[in-house]
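#lab-general

N.A. 3:47 PM
ok so I finally got the sequence cleaned up, no stray characters, all 323 residues accounted for. can someone with queue access submit it? mine expired

B.Y. 3:52 PM
send it over

N.A. 3:53 PM
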Amino acid sequence: LGLSVSANSTHKPPRDPCSPLTLQYPHINTVMRLPEFPVSHKAVKLAELFKKILLEATSKTLAPQARLCLCETARTVIELFMIPSFDPFVDTENPGKAVTFFCDSWFLSHSVFCESLLLKSELPNENFFDIVNDLRSKGTATLGNNSDALLEKVETLFRQIGGLDGQGKENHGMVIEMAFVQIVALINKYTSAWKKSLPKDRYIKLLQMTIDKTLKLILTDTLSIQDISAKHSTCLSNNFSLLLDQLSKVRSDDLPEDSDSWVRFKLVIGLMDDSLVKIVENWENGTLSRYFRSSEVQHLVRALFQNTDKNAALRRRITGDVL
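B.Y. 4:20 PM
back already:
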């Protein structure tokens, strides 16, 4: 293709091999649109090699068995690529590798589909549609595994806090703050790699899932706190606010709408800052009941406020689930 690039560089895919098929198959671009994201030099060279071998297999001067062997060789070239050279659960420090594998897989699936369809009438009885599906599935699974690896690391960092209640712990607020800083830095590292190369819709989906699962992880622990002092509640509220502020910078304008997890997290911050009277009012006017079960709010109220007769009477008004 006349490309002069280093072995590790990426660039936009070359001319779409499906172009000659559009007259015969008018809907080909709907079914197999050329991916509009960077691919590696290796993927381009593999696509070239696959095409070259298939062209040799069309030669009528070769014996039928030799032509079949060439088709099998073309298949093997692609199948060898599908064995990733890394484990996304181990090599989590380089999310760019998973992104590259995903992009290359989808580009190669497109190339294999189009080149084999173009030469279908001249090839022995051989098709490569199974490889097309395998390439896409493997690429998608690898990206999913990379996302799972990120969330595992986020949970590990969060669990190292040792609980959010702060009971009997010195400088616990600082420990929580540092853990949140590390979590945001980790998320930013991965999502930046995703944003750089992935199609926007897939990047948005991964970004939303990552932020939602991170907030759900913290919310689950927050709503199960048994007892928390007023001082530590303020400290926790401040750290939660800082976390949302930093995650807002990560999501930037890519996620303009607040998800339910994001709204719930903001409401929990309010719960920690508000009086019990205000919490009951917000429950009765629907501000809280649209996003929480009564048992969740009652549990947090018991952790935040003293168990007096007056508070108990107010707490009993938090009832009647909407969810």
